[in-house]
Description:
- By secondary structure, this protein is α+β, with helices and mostly antiparallel strands.
- The protein is built from 8 helices and 7 strands, in the order βαααααααββββββα.
- The chain has helices at 11-14, 29-35, 52-61, 91-117, 134-151, 154-160, 163-174, 272-277, and strands spanning 2-5, 181-189, 194-202, 210-227, 241-254, 257-258, 262-270.
- Strands 1, 2, 3, 4, 5, 6 and 7 form a 7-stranded antiparallel β-sheet that branches.
- A hairpin with a 2-residue loop joins strand 5 and strand 6 (257-258).
- Helix 5 (134-151) runs antiparallel to helix 6 (154-160).
- The longest helix has 27 residues, at 91-117.
- It starts with a strand and ends with a helix.
Amino acid sequence: MSHQTRRPVLxxxxxxxxxxxQYRLFTQSRISQAIGNRVTVPKVRxxxxxxxxxxxxxxxxxxxMSNDLGFLDGSFxxxxxxxxxxxxxxxxxxxxxxxxRLKQRVLDLGGVLHYKxxxxxxxxxxxxxxxxxxxxxxxxxxxxxxxxxxxxDTPTLKKICSEGLFTSFCxxxxxxxxxxxxRWILHKHTRQPRVVSHRAVILPVGxxxxxxxxxxxxxxxxxxxxxxxxxxxxxxxxxxxxxxxYVVVQRRMMKEKEExxxxxxxxxxxxxxxxxxx
Length: 278
């Protein structure tokens, strides 16, 4: 449902504002205004992603299992602000959208409960969902990821990012000019992180294999300073900006044992017109 992107919003800081074609990472107009015009790196189009079930089956057939199984089909990220249809001008459309969100939450809850009660057998304990901690965990990983990227800390990125995202970060780090340095600063979180989607699926690669995936809205004030080899600060960098990001975190279970949470990437809000048309 939601438009996918593997390019975290940190890219907005990397290049100073100039007259260039518009590109909006998120659909929120107010976020785009906060970021402003900017030079962007060439956009690498991701190939069409297979569903988690198809990807896991293919991986199992060749004796391997990637930790990057894509963004779960059917995930719904409710539009916010001006992107959400008005309850007064389009009441029928808004109610249909709210009904879709309610149905999806019920389905998602069923999947998460099945993950807890239907993936393990004694003597292995059932997984602890700890749903109240998901937002905090995603927010912490978000901060750690951006700090590691700015510092070029690839061991940390490999530990906390899925394979596809890690490869993307490594490519960007390698493309930096010799002697170029970045410094990312989190000034504050402007709002508490909020889980907007939390889903789970069973992976068809044997008993005790499953995947949890959550979309968490993280709102923060950040800055990124970019310096040239001789310490000169690149114009247009270092300014504080308020950003809202939908961070996708996931946790895989293999052989009835859960692995740590990691970042898959970011996504945009779902297109309500597509949802209503279904």
